[in-house]
Amino acid sequence: MYYSNPYMGYAYKNPTYNKKSLDNSLKLIKEGVIGEKSDELFYNYLISIAPDEEDKEIITSIRDDELKHNRMFRQIYKDYTGQEIGEGENIDFEKTEDYIDGIVKALFGELKAVEKYREIRAGLPTRNSRDMLFEIITDELKHSSKYNYLYTKNIASQGNEVPNNCIGSGNKTVSKTYTLDEWSKIIDPLVEKSHYETYDPQEIILISILIGSGYTPEEAIEKVSEWENC
Known about the structure:
mainly alpha; Ferritin; 66% helix
């Protein structure tokens, strides 16, 4: 039984919606929100060990976006069920070996989140809630570009090369350190493409990872296309 919120613009007696898909979306939302406190603790940990003020500001902005997403998910859940999601218990998180490992963990966490949020979005029947998920997904894609920036910046500052074939991406061995503005110019057109159902947001993150490994945007897009055809 779903809570009928007149502001959702949707009648739950409408036979076109898929109840099983909606149930799954609500289940994933609840699981994600309950685990969000652990993510918040992890972000605070990354902020505490970040090497400079720029890194701290970037990760703080990402953490604040995630807190906003948490509120949006809670609202969506309440709109459909009339119930609040409680706080999780025994909250803990696992520290990484060092700061760069933390950035890598966070980057691939964004990839995992995009996959889950696409599944949630697919099961939501109203335009309003689907638009909210689209906003959340595009935020996550932008976060991935910021983490790429932090990763390449810190690798370069240590005088290290990006490991050869570190993600099976070819023979690129030298990373290019982009400014955050340059990352935005690279990633924004890709994020726009994610608006279409036929364009997989996972591809966008893979493309941005390749760019961080030294590929040009054109080379990265071509490489991801090759993977798809394998």
